[in-house]
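Q: Could you write out the predicted structure for this multi-component system? I'm mainly interested in how the pieces pack against one another.
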Amino acid sequence: MSDAATIRFLLDGEVIEIRDVDPTRTVLQYLREDLRRKGTKEGCAEGDCGACTVVVAELAANGSDVTIKAINSCIQFLPTLDGKELMTVESLAHGDELHPVQSAMVSQHGSQCGFCTPGFIMSLYALYETNPNPGRQEIDDALSGNLCRCTGYRPIIAAANEMYSATPAPRPDRSSALKRIQRNGSLCIEHDGRRFFAPVDANELAALLTQYPEATLLAGGTDVGLWVTKRHRELETVIYTGRVSELADVRVTDTQIDIGAAATLTDAVPVIVKHYPGLDEMFRRFASPPIRNAGTLGGNVANGSPIGDSMAALMVLDATLVLRLGVVEREIAINEFYHDYMVNDLQPGEFVARIWIPLPTDGALVRSQKWSKRFDQDISGVCTAYRLVLDAGRVASFRMACAGLAATVRRAEKTEAAIVGLPWTHELIESACEKLAEDYAPISDMRASADMRLLAVQNLLRRFFAETESGDTVTVYTYGRQH
Amino acid sequence: MDASIKTSFKRQPAVGAPLPHDSAHLHVTGRASYTDDLPEPRNLLHVAVGMSSVAHAELVAMDLSKVLAAPGVVDVCIAQDIPGDNNFGPIIADDPIFATDLVQCVGQPVFAVAARTVDAARKAVRLARIDYREREAILDALTAVEKQSFVLPSETLIRGEPDAALKAAPHRLRRRVFLGGQDQFYLEGQIAMAVPQEDGCLTVYSSTQHPDEVQMMIAHATNRAAKDVTVICRRMGGAFGGKESQAALIACIAALASDKTARPCKLRLDRDDDMIMTGKRHDFVIDYDVGFDDNGLILGIDFELASRCGMSADLSGPVNDRAMFSCDNAYYLENVRILSHRCKTNTVSNTAFRGFGGPQGMFAIEYAIEDIARKLGKDPLQVRRRNFYGKDERNITHYQQRVDDNVIEEIFDRLLVSSDYEKRRREIRKFNDTSPILKRGIAMTPVKFGISFTNTLLNQAGALVHVYKDGTIQLNHGGTEMGQGLYIKVAQVVADEFQIDIDRIRITAADTSKVPNASATAASSGADMNGMAAKIAAAKIRLRLSEFAARHFSVAEAEVVFIDNRVFAGDKSLTFPELVQLAWADRVPLSATGFYKTPKINYDRTTFSGRPFFYFAYGAAVTEAVVDILTGENRTLRVDILHDCGDSLNPAIDRGQIEGGYVQGVGWLTAEELWWNDRGELGTHAPSTYKIPTCSDLAPDFRVELMQSHPNREDTIYRSKAVGEPPLMLALSAFHAIRDAIASDDCPLPDLQAPATPEAILRALLAAKHE
C-alpha cells in the first residue's frame, strides 16, 4: 500500500503507521479497542465531558516550532493525527516516577472516583507545557472542558497551582521527530469503499470537492464527529481541511482581519478579540479549549447552526465570506449567507475559504453577550451582538444580531431600523425592546422557554445600554473575580 | 523490656491521617481499571438496548428481523427469552427488565441485541420496528395526584395538633414550590460484563454499589441459585446512588444476553442512553402551610410532598420516607403533618441519589424558614436559631427519636464568627442599594442528617481479612468503592488494628464470593459499617496472634503488644511477619470474617416512629452569591463551611466529600435542569444539554473546615461520623443566597423555583413585577 494511504504519527517515541483503517474511527476507539490502551476514558462521546482528553503536538506553520494542544479524542478521527505526536495519560510517567502534574494531583487529593482524572491530567499537562504561571482564570479556562463530578474542583485547582513547584519535567525535542514524519503530498485513504482525503493546498481541496461534491468537509470535527459517534452515520467521503496550511492562517491587513477557514478558534480568536475586546466574554465562553483547539471559525460559520456563537458577532461586523468552487472564488456578506434552518448559500462542491472581518472604525462600540445555564462550555440560550456608533448622543448606526431566537442566526432588522437617528436613551431602548418581539419569535426547548428567551434578549439589550451609560461591563462572572 | 523502649517504636496512626486515596497513583496514570478496562474474553459480544420511544403504550408488534440481519449481530433478547423473573425492582416486583405488552416510559428497555462490536450493536438497535398503541401518559406529579396515580400508597406522619396550631397562629404563610430532579452524571456510565463459567456458573463484572442485589437479580432472572452467580466490582467511576438499584438492570441484560448466546457479553451504555434509561433524583412539588409567632417560632406546619417516582416503585418508598424524616432538618416541629405522595408517572423510574429524599425534605423546611423570616423582616439566621432543636427539651423528632447529639448551635456560633456573616450581610445590603443590575445575597443554612438505613435490617456488614505467611494482608468487605475513599478508610482501620504500615495491606474488589449478602454501599454508611466489620475481623486474628505469642514466649497475654510493625512479648520482640510465620507454623488460623450490625436502632414503619437513625451528622454553610437581575445569571462568591465528621478517619478524604457534595448540591439547585417535552422525552440527556458545574463555577473564596474535638457520641468506628451524603445539603445556602439577592423591598418573598437557572430567576423577578 502506498505511502499516501498510510497514517503516520508518533506515540511514546515510536512512529505508528496505520493502513487500511475505517477513516472515521475515532482516536479514542483506536486507543481503547485497538491498542487496548485503556487509560483514556469515554464519558460522553461528544466532546463535552473531557474524560477522553489527549494532547497532540504538531509543527507550527513555521515548520520548526511545536504547538501543544489538548483535544477530545472521542470525536477526533484517526487520520487527523497524521504527522502529529499523540500523548495520552500513559505517556507521562516514567515507570513509577510520576510527572509533576500527576504527583500534584495525588498530593492535593485531586482524584476521587478517578474516571475523569486522565482527562484532567492531560488538560493540566497541556497547561503545564504552554503556560508557566497561570492564574485562577487561566486554570479555569484550561479545565473548562473537563467535568469532575466528585471533587468540586477545589483540589484540582490546587494541583494546577502545585504542579509548577516540582522539578520541571524534561521536555523532549519534539520538533525533529515531527519533521521526520511529515509527508510530501496528501493523505488519501480508501477503506471499504469509503474515502478520506487530507489535501495540503487549497487547489487540491477545491478539486477534490468538485470531484466529490457530496463529500463531508471535515475541519475540527467537533460537530461531524458526533454524526458518527451519536447518529451512527457512515460518511462515504471525508475531506479534511486541517492540512491545508494556506487556509489555516490568520492575517491582519490595513483594513481587515483575514482568517483562513481552517484556522482553529484557538488561533483566530485572540486576533479578533485584540481588535474587538467586547467579544472577549463570548469567545471565552465559546466551548472549551479542547474544542477550540480543534474547531474552526470556518466550521462554525459553514455549519450555520442557529445557536452558533460566532455568527451574531460576524454579522454586526459585516464580515465577508470568501467562497470557492473549483477555481472560482466569490465573496458574500455573511448577512446574506444563511437562507433557512441549516440551509446556506454554498453550492455543491463549494466551500468557505476565508472570513474577512473589517478592522474597527473609530467610535464603534462592539459587544457580544451570551446567555446560558452555565458560564463555561454551554450552548447559548441566546447569544447577542451589537455594533453601535453614536454621534452627539444619537444613534448614527446600529446593528444587532442574535443566535437562539430563529431558524438561523439573524439580524434584528426592525429593531435596528426603528432606532437609527434617535437619541440613545432609556426610552429608546424600551421601544427597541418592544421591536425585538417583532424581530424574533423564538421557540421553547431544553435550553430555554420562548418567553424567557425573548425577555432575556430584551434584558441583554437593556444591559448593553446600561454598559454604554456607565462605561463599565461588569458581569457576575467578572464581578466575582474582581471582588 | 521496659515501656520506654517500646514507646521508641512509635508509629504514626493510620486512622486520622490525611492519606491519599488508595488508587490515586493509578487514577493519575490511567492504570486504575474500571469495568470497561478489564481484559476482554476473545469471544466477547457487545450488547445494546432497544428502548421504548413512547411514554405509555401497548406493544402491538415488534419486528426485529432487520436487527438480526444487521452486520455483526449474533442474537437478540426479548422478554420471552427470560427464563426466570422479568424484574429488577429491588423492593416491589414492578420493574420489568424488558417490557412485555406495555411500555410505561420513554427509554424503557424493550429488547437487546448482541453483536461483535459496540458499533455494530448500537447501529443494529435502530433497525427495530415496534408498533405501539399509545395510551394517555401522565408526565408530572401534579397530574398524577389529580388522577390518584401512585406507585405506593400515600403516607402521613403527624405529631401534635397541626390544624389547631395553624388556626391559632398569629401569622400564616402558604406556598407551592417546584423542586427539580438531578441526574447522577457519574463520569463512568452504567456497565456490566457477564462471563460464563463451567457448570452453569456466571461471573459478572458490574459497576454497582450493590453487588449482592445484582447477584440476586441475575439469579432470579436467569433461573440460577445465588451460589452460581458471582459479582465483582473493584471500583466505579462515580455512582452517587445511580448504581444502587439501576446497575441490576444493566447486569441482568448482560447476563441474559450471555445465556442466550452462550458467550461473554458486555453492556456499556452510551451516555445518552444512560441518561434516558436510568433513574434520577426525584423531583418534588412541595406545598406548605406554616403558622408562626412574631419571633418566627413555628407553631404548626403542614407539608404536602408530591414526588415524581416514575413508572415503578424502585427505591421510591424509602426515598420518600426519608424526605418525610428530613422535613425537620435541624428544627423542632411541635405540630406537624407531612403528607407524602409517591406519584406514578410515565417517566423513567426515579431512584437513589446522594441524600436519598433528605435534600428534598430539607429544601421544604428551609424554604418555609426563609419565608417566615422575610415575612417578619428578620434575618433568617434568627428564625433558624429560634427553631433549632434544644439539647434537653424540644429535642424529640416528629418520628419520636430523641436528638441527643445536637451540635448545631455550636456549629452556627463558630461559623457565624469565622464567616464574618453579620458584617458581610450589612455590607451586602449597602452594595445592593447602589448597584442596579448586580445584586448580592447571603444565606447560612444548617444540616442535620440521620445516619443509618431507615430499613433497619440493611444495617449489617461483613468483612474478610486474610493474613499471609509473609505478614501481608488482603482486605475484603461488602462495601464498594465509588470514589468516596471507603477502601482507604477501612484499610486505615485494619492497619491500626495490627499496628502495621498500610502498604502491607492489599485492598481487594467487592466480590460476592468473599462477603455474602452485603447491603448496598449507600446511606453514607459504608465506612461506619464496613470499617467496624473489618476491625472485628482483624481483631479476631490479632487476638489469635496474641494468644499464640503469649503461649510461644511464655508470657501473659497482656504482655503481648503490637507496635510499629513489630510485636513485643515480654522482653522478646520480633517483626510482624516473623510472628505471623511462627503462628502459621503453629497452625494458627490467619483468616477471619467480621460481622457488624448497627446497634440501638429500631423503627416501626407502620407508625413512622422509633429510632431509625443511630446518630445525626451536622454541618452548616454560609454562601454569598451575586445575581445579574437582568439575565438571571449567578455565581457563588464565597463559601464558608463547618462540618461535623466526628473524629475523622481521614480528614483529606472527608474534606473531599464535603467539597464535592457541596458543589454537587449547588449544581442540583442552580444549573442542572432536567427538561422533558410533552411527549415525555428527556431533552437533556448528555453533557451538551445537561449542565453540571465546571471548574469556574467554584467560588473564588472557598473555605472548608472540619469540626475538631467533637467525637461521635455513639460508639462508631473510631468515633467518626458518616460524611457521604450530608454535605450535599449544605448547598441549600447557595439557593437561598440567590433568593436573598433577588429579594427586594417590593418583593421580599420571590417565588423562586429550583433549580435557580437564569430562566427561573427571570421568571421569579417577572412574577414579582406583576404582583
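A: Regarding packing and overall arrangement: The two ends of chain A are 62 Å apart (CA to CA).
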